[in-house]
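Troubleshooting entry. Yesterday's outputs looked truncated, so today I'm pasting the complete records for two proteins to confirm everything comes through intact. If either block looks cut off, that's the bug. Protein one:
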Amino acid sequence: MRLVVEQSAARWYMREMELTSGDHLRIFVRLGGSGSVQPGYSLGVMKDTPRNPGLHQVVEGITFYMEDDNLWFLDEKDLYLRFNDHEDDILMEIG
């Protein structure tokens, strides 16, 4: 199980969320949404301070992470954060 963040995705988050090197971006499980491996749940993001990260990757100086107690959502799969330049948006893919 891995967290893989493309450099272009990290730059998008930096721009959209006004992040700077040294910031932390938590990926968390939230109730609702669709298109995930866990029906009725989806992923959200927020600037936060890590407490017990289970996965993390540093890109462009930003630490992207998921807390250990949210890893059940991935069902032992990898999480990819990719930038979609046609829609100027992020794709979160689990596979």
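Protein two, checking that the full record survives here as well:
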Amino acid sequence: MPDRSLAEWLTLIESRHPSEIELGLGRVAEVWHRLLQQPRLNQCKPPLAITVAGTNGKGSCITSMQALLLQHGHSVGTFTSPHFLAYNERICLAGKPVSDALIVDAFEQIEAVTDELSLTYFEVGTLAALVIFYQASPDVMLLEVGLGGRLDAINIIDADIAVLTSIALDHCDWLGDTRTAIAREKLGIARPNRPLIIGEQDYPEGFAQLVADTGAKPLWAGRDFTFTGGELFDCQLSSPESPRSFEQLNGQGLLPINKILALQALTAAGFQLNQQDSAAALQQVSLTGRHQQLSYRGLEVILDVAHNPAAAKVLAASLAQTEGRTIAVAAVLEDKDWSGIIEPMVDPVDDWILGEISDSSRARKGQSLLDLLYNAGQTGRLQPSVEQAFELAVDNAAATDRILVFGSFHTVAAVLKIILAEV
């Protein structure tokens, strides 16, 4: 087998499977079974696994759990997707992206047992993360579901703790066109007699029965664990021993509910979290592309991956608290509800500049973005790419304006590269 760089491996893996997404566990579970029979893995003790599903908030919840675990002296591995600048961002140990060499080694192990089976890009990446975590043996591995839950590659792992952050309409072509159907798919990560942490409080029809059907032990936000809102929040968590209270935790940066879900999930897993270390961890936690505030050529730039109506509503609410003009640079993928995303953004956005995502075949065409913006009673300007849209926004912004970049990981990544190139 010729030596390949990480970039060469990624190109090869991406080209092999006929479709970018193919839900189902049969192929990936079989390869994982084969890997577990190999000498390098068959003696490894599986780390405690916490799997996180949800329409929004998955990354924030995992980042909060990672910060809490590290602050309390525990070792942790995280698998998230997609990445912004480098593939290594998807697989982290101790809060740091792993090396090219570790990922290449994992790819080589997977290649050696795959044989006749064809895996998607995401499935191979999932297996690589698991190989790395089993061999590194952290105390905990935090696994973010890529799409849905029941048929997502992550679900080959029987989670010790399952977390469901939120339920909203997204990826409807794959998961169903009702919140009930989507909830059913996401609840597929739950396991009988194991904790299921539920952050969603606006339940879709039949949700209680769907939860009961999993056989899991649910802990419901607002019922079993409670919290106050605001920049500083208090919460009371359900604990195997007795209720645990935390006071005056920082609610800025990431939504408080996702920090609370992190606290509750780790408490349910038996970790002894203390007030001082928890407050310190949550004070400094942040996440790339989640209401991330940067400066570029003296201008305020806000990066947010909000790519569905529910996330757009949260983003709009945060902008309503600010002063000055907002220039939006936006682009989405073809399967996104662009009209639904526009609706809550009408009031906080003063000027629209649209581009087209250039690094994905699933990008929505620029003219379609503009047409739907006009249908919503808004005017805007269209540029050939996200990069050119951002450049136009910078050229047209006054010193007191802010530039908001949102709509997709691809959109944010394109602008983040421009900003970091000048740092």
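Both blocks look complete. Sanity check on protein two: The chain has two domains: 6-284, 292-421.
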